[in-house]
Amino acid sequence: MVHARLGQLDSARHCADETFSTASSVGYGFIVARAKHMLARISLAEGDVDQACEWTRRSIATSWQLGHRRDALLHCRWPGFLLLQSQPDARALPLFAEGADELDNQVMLAATVMTLQERSDWEHALAELRSHLAGPVWAAAWRLAAASPPEQTLRDFGVL
Prior knowledge:
The structure is a single chain. The protein is mainly α. The protein folds into 2 domains: 1-67, no CATH class; 69-160, no CATH class. The protein has helices at 2-5, 9-26, 29-45, 49-65, 69-74, 77-86, 93-105, 107-113, 116-131, 135-147, 150-156. The longest helix is centred in the N-terminal third of the chain and has 18 residues, at 9-26.
């Protein structure tokens, strides 16, 4: 993560690949999921949105399968952000809504997951998404998305 934040993407990828391989070989699923998430972030920094989405799906699926619901839901905002990068529209709304309560209600956890810049990026992405929907439409769509079962949102995104 440090290498990626410094823009040293080759070093970041090497570390993430090594972490993924080692954690996989010893069956440490939590770290496998984190390594997949890091590979998604590196792929996005390299400009490969499709690969970033694939790594994100795999990361969320691993967390969900391990029973780490909080991690899976926290990371639902990430694919929403990725969708906004490629085609900004309301399809990203369920992914943002799914993780919103988890992230916003877990301030201390969120502080360990995101830097201040990353949190600002999320808020900017959400504002961009909101700008595509009129006020009452936004509120109704957000309520509907937030009320849908997480399993349905994850199925729609191709995770489950």
